[in-house]
Amino acid sequence: MKRTKKYNPNKVSQLIQSKSMQVHRLWMRYDNDLIDQITDEWLKDHPNEDVATHLLYPHIDGDLIIAIKHRLISLEQKWHIKLTLELDDGTEAELIFDLPKAHLKDIKMQTAEFKIDRGNGIKTRWKGLDKEVEDAIKPLEAEGVSCIRTWAYIAVETPFKSKADYSYFVQEKALRLMLGEMVA
Q1: What integer pLDDT is reported at residue 110 of this predicted model?
Q2: What pLDDT score does 1 carry?
C-alpha cells in the first residue's frame, strides 16, 4: 500500500526563507552619460528630491535596480564597478573598481571616506564615479582621443533583508521581464 504524504504549507515558506538568506549576485548596466543627463535635468527643477525612478528605470538593464529602488537590500555594499568607455577612434577602454563596503550615495559623490587600491601598493581616496572617469579620460584627450559614451556595469553579492523582500523582488523581476520598460 502506498503511503500518501500530507501537503506541508510550511515547506514553501521555508524554501523562500532559505533562498532569501542566500547571497545573490545582482547587477545593472546603463549608459552613464544618459543617466547623468536625466539626473541633472531633474535636479534643476527638484533640487531637494531624489530622481523619480520612472525616469531612470527604462534606461537601466538588470535586476539590481529593482532591489535598490524598493530598498530590498542594504545600500551599504561591496560594489563591483566596470566602466566601458567607447572612444571616437573605434576602440574601448575599461575601468574596473572593486570598492570596499560603501553606501550607494558614495559611489557618485566625492563624499566617500574610503580608499581604493590603485595597484603597486598605492591606495588613494575615492573621488566619485564621474571624477574617476574624468581623470581616466584626461590622458586620452591629450592624445586627441575623446570618449563618445560611458557604459556602467555595477554588481553586488548580497542577501535580501527579509523573506518578504525576497518574495517582492522575485515578483517584481518577473513583472519587469514580462512587461519590460513599462514597469516603474
Answers
A1: 76
A2: 61
